[in-house]
Amino acid sequence: MSATPTLVVIGAGPRGTGVIERIAANAPALYGGRPLDIHLVDPFPPGGGRIWRHDQSPLLWMNSMAEDVTMFTDDTVRLDGPVRPGPALDAWTADVREGRTTPGPDIAADPGLRAEIDELTSQDFPSRRLQGAYLRWVYEQSVAALPPGVTVHEHRGRALRVTGPRDGRQTVHLEGRAEPLTADLVVLTLGHLDAEPDDEQRRLSRFADRHGLIHLPPDFTADSDLSALPAGEPVIVRGFGLAFIDLMVLLTEGRGGRYENGTYLPSGREPVLYVGSRRGVPYHSKIGYVRPGERPPLPRFFGPDRAEELLNRAEPLDFRRDIWPHVDKELGYAHYHRLFAAHPERTTADWTAFEEKYAAADPGSADLWAVIAAAVPDPADRLDLAALDHPLDGVRHTSAASFQEATRAYITADLDRRHDPGHSEDLAVFLGLLSVYGQLIRFPDIGDWWHGFFSYLASGPPGPRLRQLLALSRAGVVRFLGAGTTVGTDEELGVFRAAGATVPGERLESRALVEARLPDPSPRHTRSTLLRALYEDGAAATASGLLAVDPGDGRILDRDGLPHPRRFALGPHTAARTSGAFTRPRTGGPAFGQNDATARAALAFLHGLGPDDG
């Protein structure tokens, strides 16, 4: 039995890297120079992990500009540990380019990656492989910053199960390794996970097998085998978010097509993608201008005090009834604060008087809407989140051709607005969304709607990707199915059939169906043997199927609501999920605060261990 305390971190992507960084920051004050063994377990290389690994297509981009990506804390992050500043992605690439930072092995061995660094500007959207190189550097810097006596051991493999008593050492069983790891504490930072198909996907797969069709269930697009999708034939694609954008890229440029002066020149190897979804439109473009003017003073109507008041209510909370009205009011405040400050000619009231009336009106009330309508005469300048969420509600077209043209006009208008500082209230709402996320991580289970809405409004594709989508639509390589897209099967003809509500009567038959969305992370469908074993061992799941954790420090909760003293979890498979493992500089970084709380709790526990504990 080792006398050295041992921590096992399962997951070496950006979340695991963030935990290592916070251990390095907090250990000098909390751990007192004692030895510590940290075992890092992941089948993929540390830093980038699976999603940001070097081994993927260089055509795949991040959906954030280089200046908007950091792994380092600043004074806007709510944490108890020390701030350890560091370069954002754009500053890091400049350091590499100008010789202040030595490039890692991925860059040194890859001329294409080196060329990307040499050409990158702060407003460019980097490749995922470049982000992976940055994450690898952050990981190496974090390990180097650990105090003497703290040693990291890397294990390239999968963790299959964690066993052990609540009051004793834990055993981590690894795939392909007879000898398990013994740990005083275990932290799960698993990232996005694969899942078994649900009943509908199994039914569709069986239908495809019977008729010799192609069915690709929800998956990470970069890992999907797209070679079976035939050139020139229609493919039904269900899902219009970032997974679709990746699919679009890999099936067009990835098959030899190219863009020239805004026109797509096909290679002849592309399928024809018929894409539809619940909304029927793509996620909103990322905002494409530098932030003008001051930030809205947030939080204002949905801050820690409001969150605490809601959490202390005796009755169960319903997100749409109890929480959403406050979120809506907070986002509205961000919007109107910017509108009054930057575009007073589009308002008819004094800001101080408007703010007083806005504050006095109840969230979600007719009185609040009346205050807004009286001060903002043009409906286009009012924030209507319901209309944003359902842009095609009630919209009908008599022909597929007219709908294609209308959708192209919608995407063009979105691009124009998202790249026009004259609508900088949109950026204020984006900052409001980040602020809101920082409060919502305290709530144990808010369901899936909010996360989807956040991604649709704030985490959409880069503008250049939507311009490519427009070119593909004009070239006939992508066609739009509309809102409320449904997919059925025809046993007699042996085809998939898709229809949308926007063009009544329009039907499409295809021999291929792609589900362009991430797998369901719920315990019923997770393919992770590790998570399944945790649930079997008594870990609790929320109503929406996420691993239940203490929002304060990430300890895994059992079915009685008791936190496990030796098991922690962070990331999208937990009820305390955030908008991402990294963030835009100076926007609070909720994930960084979570990492800090978990690292501090782990260090305090490990420091308190006696020689016979376990």
Describe this structure in words.
By secondary structure, this protein is α/β, with parallel strands linked by helices. It has helices at residues 14-30, 89-97, 105-108, 111-119, 128-144, 199-211, 242-251, 304-311, 319-342, 351-360, 366-375, 385-389, 400-418, 425-440, 449-458, 463-474, 529-536, 590-607; strands at 6-10, 36-41, 150-155, 159-163, 170-174, 181-183, 185-188, 214-216, 234-238, 258-260, 263-265, 272-276, 478-482, 486-490, 495-499, 508-510, 512-515, 555-557, 563-569.
Let me know the largest β-sheet.
6 strands, mixed
- Unreliable stretches covering 5 or more consecutive residues: none
- Gross morphology is globular
Which structural class do the helices and strands define? Answer: alpha/beta
Q: What does the radius of gyration come to?
A: 25 Å
Q: What proportion of the residues form beta strands (DSSP E)?
A: 5-15%
Portion in helices: 25-40%
* Terminal-residue CA separation: 10 Å
Mean pLDDT: 94
Give the tally of β-strands: 19
Count helical runs: 18
The side-by-side strand order for the widest beta sheet comes to 3-2-1-7-19-18
Domain FAD-dependent urate hydroxylase HpyO/Asp monooxygenase CreE-like FAD/NAD(P)-binding: 8-192
Pfam families: NAD_binding_9 (PF13454)
Organism: Streptomyces poriferorum
Protein name: FAD/NAD(P)-binding protein
